[in-house]
């Protein structure tokens, strides 16, 4: 998964200077088929 936001303006990850290793901590699928995923940095 490559997190992205559609639209114009500043990007969500523009201020990051390095790769951040993330861990999926929850996933919620809605009736519409949309999926919400929550990540935390790996320690």
If you had to describe this structure to a student in words, what would you say it looks like?
The protein is mostly beta strands and 43 residues long. The protein has a domain at 19-43. Helices cover 0% and strands 35% of the residues. It has no helices and two strands. It has a two-stranded antiparallel sheet with strand order 1-2.
Content-based structural category: mainly beta
- How many angstroms does the end-to-end distance come to? 20 Å
In the sheet with the most strands, the strands line up as: 1-2
Characterize the biggest β-sheet. Answer: 2 strands, antiparallel
| Overall average pLDDT | 80
* Uncertain residue segments: none
SS summary, helix count: 0
Number of strands: 2
The SSE string, one letter per element, is: EE
Helix content: under 10%
How large is the share of residues in beta strands?
25-35%
Radius of gyration: 13 Å
Keywords:
mainly beta; 43 residues
Brief overview, please?
The protein is mainly β. It has a domain at 19-43.
Please render the helix and strand layout as text.
Layout: E1 22-29, E2 35-41
Antiparallel strand pairs: 1-2
């Amino acid at each position: 998964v490559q997190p992205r936001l559609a639209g114009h303006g500043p990007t969500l990850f523009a201020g990051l200077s390095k790769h951040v290793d993330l861990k999926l901590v929850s996933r919620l699928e809605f009736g519409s088929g949309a999926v919400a995923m929550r990540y935390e940095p790996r320690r």
